[in-house]
Write a sequence for this structure.
């Protein structure tokens, strides 16, 4: 959109003197991280594909008893290709083609793990609350056409692929679920993780389509580290992030679809705070662009009916357990963010800050168990 700013970084670099810019970025983003030197072939391909390409490097201290555990992670944000009025099959085909190109770009940049945005095979039509034709985008997680398409790419590129889709569970009554499929670099389907928390906020009333997930807080052991997926609205729930850490995750992806008027002040805080609180890396991915639907819809909030529900502001970023983070991708353009990270940093930060040792999980387990009882009375002390 012409009236949308490109990025927060663009504003900083335009208005803050060079003498102050480095310090401003340190305050905003934590300790400086390195810029990753990417192959010329990747840079040239990104230009050809009209995709913003950024690369950064998180380092850890050298250890005598452990070798570095260096992995390259990629986050993809993108606009839909065709208008939402086009046939469903053509919309899916166009996105397969585009994401196939961008996964190829991630491979050219040396990525070991790549994750796409929430429900990447479709427009984010859940705001409309119409079932037809949007439910047609749903497909089986384990053997649907999107998974088969990505299995071949995962094996070809020796890359773990995290694929968030609208799932059709044919084995359990054809129900729908908001699901991320995890595909190993061998091409095998490792499993799936469903969205734990479902929004009921204005246009984001997704309970029309699916309810809270039933897969808990799964962590997937891959060749490149232990990963987990906290889909979109789950980032607003600290306990959700916490459980992935309790279960041993080293990288937690947050594939999302969120618009500026609703959540942008929260965006740069939540995944970064989770990385700090849980001593793991987080990868926050937001789709980009404005999606227009054929029929007007309203949100029972007093506002006029509308055919779109705002601008998806991209700004995907990656945060480390030591509070450092990358700058965000563009708010308006397709982008691929690459981060090289040494997973040894997770334990090093645990040792330094002691947050896991001081977490006192039994205290909270007991308190939460009490708070869920019907006769619970909060321990409020009064004069």
């Amino acid at each position: 959109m012409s009236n949308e700013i490109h990025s927060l970084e663009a504003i900083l670099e335009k208005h803050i003197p060079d003498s102050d810019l480095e310090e401003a970025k340190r305050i905003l983003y934590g300790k400086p991280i390195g810029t990753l030197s990417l192959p010329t072939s990747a840079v040239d391909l990104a230009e050809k594909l009209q995709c913003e390409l950024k690369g950064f490097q998180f380092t850890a201290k050298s250890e005598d008893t452990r070798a570095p555990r260096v992995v390259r992670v990629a986050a993809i944000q993108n606009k839909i290709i065709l208008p939402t009025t086009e046939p469903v099959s053509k919309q899916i085909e166009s996105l397969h083609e585009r994401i196939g190109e961008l996964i190829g770009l991630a491979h050219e940049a040396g990525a070991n793990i790549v994750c796409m945005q929430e429900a990447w095979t479709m427009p984010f039509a859940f705001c409309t609350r119409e079932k037809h034709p949007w439910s047609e985008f749903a497909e089986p997680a384990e053997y649907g056409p999107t998974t088969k398409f990505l299995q071949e790419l995962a094996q070809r590129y020796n890359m773990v692929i995290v694929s968030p889709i609208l799932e059709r569970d044919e084995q359990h009554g054809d129900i729908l679920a908001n699901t991320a499929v995890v595909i190993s670099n061998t091409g095998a389907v490792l499993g799936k993780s469903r969205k734990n928390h479902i929004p009921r906020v204005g246009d984001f009333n997704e309970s029309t389509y699916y309810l809270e997930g039933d897969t808990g807080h799964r962590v997937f052991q891959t060749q490149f580290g232990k990963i987990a997926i906290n889909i979109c609205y789950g980032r607003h729930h600290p306990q959700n992030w916490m459980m992935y850490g309790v279960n041993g995750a080293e990288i937690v992806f947050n594939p999302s679809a969120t618009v500026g008027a609703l959540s942008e002040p929260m965006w740069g805080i939540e995944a970064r705070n989770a990385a700090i609180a849980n001593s793991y890396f987080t990868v926050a991915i937001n789709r980009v662009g404005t999606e227009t639907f054929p029929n007007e819809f309203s949100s029972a909030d007093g506002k006029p009916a509308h055919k779109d529900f705002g601008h998806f502001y991209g700004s995907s970023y990656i945060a480390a357990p030591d509070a450092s983070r990358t700058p965000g991708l563009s708010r308006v353009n397709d982008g691929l963010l690459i981060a090289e990270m040494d997973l040894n940093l997770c334990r090093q930060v645990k040792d330094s800050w002691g947050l896991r040792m001081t977490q006192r999980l039994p205290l909270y387990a007991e308190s939460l168990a009490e708070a869920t009882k019907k006769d619970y009375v909060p321990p409020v002390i009064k004069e």
